[in-house]
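quick one before i forget lol
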Amino acid sequence: MVGITSYGAYIPRYRLSRMAIYMNIGWFNPVTMAVAQGEKAVANYDQDSVTMAVEAGIDCIKGADAASIDKLLVASTTMPYKERQNSAIVAAALNLKSDISSVDVTVGVKAGTTALLEAVDSVKGGSAENALVTSADCRLGKMGSMQEMFFGDGAAALLVGADNVAVEVKDSFSLTYDFADHYRDEDMKFDRTWEERWIRDEGYSKFIPEAVNGLLNKTGLTIGDFAKVIYPCHFGRVHKSIGKKLGVAPERLQPNMYETVGDAGAAHPLLMLVAALEEANPGDKLLLVSFGSGADAICLEVTDAIKGIKDKKGVKGNLEQKTELPSYQKYCVFKDIVPVEMGIRGELEPASAFTSLWRGRKAVLGLVGSKCKDCGTPVFPPQRICPNPDCQAVDNFEDYDFSDKPGKIFTYTGDMLAFSFDPPAVYGIVDYEGGGRQWMDFTDCSLDSIKVGMPVKMSFRRKYVDKVRGVHGYFWKAVPVAG
């Protein structure tokens, strides 16, 4: 039996009301009022598809043996790099072993399900024992466009293996069509789309039923055999009409998450699947379908092992922890849609030294410090001499992972002089549980929401973007945990 052994998700804390979008730019395209319901998830200024893929991966492999993962597939249509493997960055941030196979699965919005099927084939074929699939997208629509309303940011992750399978992958059916509903060429920042009625009527309304019926004919099942039918479609009425066309009872149709997240691209079918698994019971059959340059339809069956998947933040936990993004202008700055004055401090960007990054890759990307073998004192960054004055052993350390260690704020400050896309820049000292102290930037917080002694967790973030040289720099930041 091969299937999903664990799952995870990540949805950014910021939510932007679609009515706020309309009130600011609706004058340009009044028809967007028709889709201005609910809110969409917005990645913070220091997040992208790589950082969100890491967050979902952390949620997924929590409690699992990371050393047993021997394949990583990262699916996205908004990878920061075209030449430099994005999945290798994710692997380093998750502190996965180096002798793994890693794959970037990209271009089409069905990349998430493509990666899932590839992971299943790898485990079935014996080339991997455990494969981690993590998918994330941060797509952009132009100001005043329908896509600006539709697109939301999010990520999901699935661990695939043959032991303790919680959701067996029973069968699948795939379609491939060169259907140009939307596209971006190599130099385009924003999606371009064809006429919406074409996308609805010739795309979603035909490809999804064709894929579903192909799977039903292949397996001999009926649509009534499935406890949940899961497929993306940000057109609300079309989403329901497809279900009606397929004969799906309304209560068995998985909500499309449009009013809470938006369309998260390649990650969206997997994000909807995680939401369904949070409510699933042993014996439930689930039908997962993706859309984009065709469609994938996957038959899943939940086992008793689903009860053993616990302590996941998942979709529920992420939806509960949200903060309104009150300013459409701030959204435009976060997404680099409009330029802002960065000042002298913000413009000074030294060249990234890839030699130094390579030597310090564990510390920079994995937040791995060192722990003294003599006295057990942990320290970051890694040292040669133990900082414990009663020990001071030399060159007697082992690796120590700080990324999963909770901490508390020892001191902090808000700096209005240092450049920040979300001023003031907030930073300070964090004391780690179990020992260790570090200077850290704080993110996903406001200055008046934090205090000394407040718990924090570590989060992999984008530190900077060097636009001149095309370098995306990553490190870890501290996220204050309210309550």
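fyi The first strand starts at residue 3 and ends at 10.
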